[in-house]
């Protein structure tokens, strides 16, 4: 498999996953709207004139009202659109909140490494030189380098654009890899920048973040039911049930969102591996680094922000279902196959 075919395949899979994200966003907004409409309709049936009807009859009638006439259907669609816009707004907020790569690095207690600092260690100077070399090979501006004080072996790239990109490497990576292996690791992160994965990672995180709006809505309904004394007891139970259903929908969408996030990340890791070989012209460096990780080395950072940014890390930190990275054996095999096919 050559690089171009590999890149085309990864991009095609990415497009499919993006489509699934949009479908998930649309379905969740419709479900939330439908839940609220049925709940409000059902609450109306707890008036004295409807006492002779059973709960099942009231529930069926509440569902039928949604599609009773064109006006009701339009109201339902308008409210669904409002929920969708609220989630899109949350996505935009999440995007801008996570778009500053420097803030992300600092949230991991990253130390800025600059050639203006005369007190750099030999390892830090070496890492800085490698970043400059690989950026030159990739024909992009040299990203800012941060060192994270953690003994785990990992790295990530962040930022909204190529000009604002940063690369963060853990102290454990600096200690565990020689220059050739570290070149492969840094070239992999440069690959993420060149392939615009840094922006894609922010977009994915923002999409998943938008689903948390559902928990906020659920909480508002819950507090309204729990603390409003003017609401009838049966209506309170109905509102509590509505809040629980919305929370469940939120939990399910976040769960599916995380799965899609992991699937998207796995495709981009293959693409970054291919780019790293292209920049270094020495695939064994990256393969050797992967072989080291296959030992007893830990890749899980202790920082509480690590889970949120797991998809952006060089090495996986999740379970199989939520694995943000392909298995190392599979990545090694792909690299070796690509080299033999060239």
Global Rg:
25 Å
The CATH H-level superfamily of the largest domain is: Metalloproteases ("zincins"), catalytic domain
Main sheet: strand order: 1-2-4-3
Query: What's the overall average pLDDT, rounded?
Result: 81
Termini separation (Å)? Answer: 8 Å
Class from helix and strand fractions: mainly alpha
- Unreliable runs: none
By CATH reckoning, the class of the largest domain would read Alpha Beta
Biggest pleated sheet: 4 strands, mixed
Per the principal axes of the C-alpha atoms, what is the gross shape? Answer: elongated
Explain what the structure shows:
With 342 residues, this protein is mainly alpha-helical. It folds into two domains: 3-96 and 212-261, no CATH class; 101-202 and 264-341, 2-Layer Sandwich (Zincin-like). The protein contains twelve helices and four strands. The protein is elongated and about 85 Å long. The termini are close together. The relative contact order is 0.13. Residues 125-337 form the Peptidase M48 domain. Its cofactor is Zn(2+).
Summarize the helices and strands and which ones pair or pack.
Elements: H1 3-44, H2 55-66, H3 70-97, H4 101-107, E1 111-113, H5 122-138, E2 144-148, E3 155-158, E4 166-170, H6 171-176, H7 179-194, H8 197-210, H9 213-227, H10 233-280, H11 283-293, H12 328-341
Parallel strand pairs: 2-4
Antiparallel strand pairs: 1-2, 3-4
Helix pairs in contact: 1-2, 1-3, 1-10, 3-8, 5-7, 7-10, 7-11, 8-10, 9-10, 10-12, 11-12
